[in-house]
Specification:
This protein is of the alpha/beta class. The chain has five helices and six strands; from the N terminus they run E-E-E-E-H-H-E-H-E-H-H. The strands form three sheets. It has a two-stranded antiparallel sheet with strand order 1-2. A two-stranded parallel sheet has the order 3-4. It has a two-stranded parallel sheet with strand order 5-6. Helix 3 links the parallel strand 5 and strand 6. It starts with 16 loop residues before the first strand and ends in a 9-residue tail after the last helix.
Length: 164
């Protein structure tokens, strides 16, 4: 029998999701671009955290621990300027159910971090153009309500992607 305390994080929070799959909504954030990005797997040993931001452009095994125990990492992540949503893999040869679940996890972690005051930059990613359009249409506004907000939340200002 599965431990009821660890049921895909639903014991922590069930967000009012949108779209057919109930994807949690992420609020847009204004990104000023003046930051240094470091990978999540270097966050714990990072100095001057208030001047840095976290990305997840690393192998999934390097950050699955955030999904498995988000409460352990929230206090540390709050110390950084910004945190991207986790970049769970969406390979085109993955079954669609796995792609949807990884998309859900990305949004659940993002919404959970936002709930605790982390400045979260929603990361739009794609396995392929059709999959991305399907996700955005199915999510029905899961990244801040409309596509303009999505662009603002993920693009930042010109030249502000230093370190990625």
């Amino acid at each position: 029998m599965r431990d009821p305390k660890r049921y895909e994080n639903l014991e922590r929070m069930v967000f009012d999701g949108v779209g057919e799959y109930g994807i949690p909504t992420l609020e847009p954030v204004d990104f000023d671009g003046d930051t240094e990005f470091i990978p999540f797997n270097f966050a714990a040993t990072s100095k001057d955290r208030e001047k840095k931001s976290i990305h997840f452009f690393i192998d999934d095994y390097q950050f699955i621990r955030l999904w498995n125990d988000p409460d352990r990492y929230i206090p540390m992540l709050r110390q950084f300027q910004y945190v991207f949503t986790p970049d769970f893999s969406l390979y085109t040869d993955f079954p669609k159910a796995v792609q949807i679940f990884n998309h859900y996890r990305k949004h659940w972690i993002g919404a959970y971090m936002q709930m605790y005051g982390v400045k979260v930059i929603p990361k739009a990613y794609k396995a392929d153009r059709k999959a991305t359009n399907d996700f955005l249409n199915q999510a029905d506004g899961s990244m801040g309500g409309n596509r303009g907000d999505q662009r603002r939340a993920t693009r930042g200002r010109r030249g502000g992607r230093r370190g990625i």
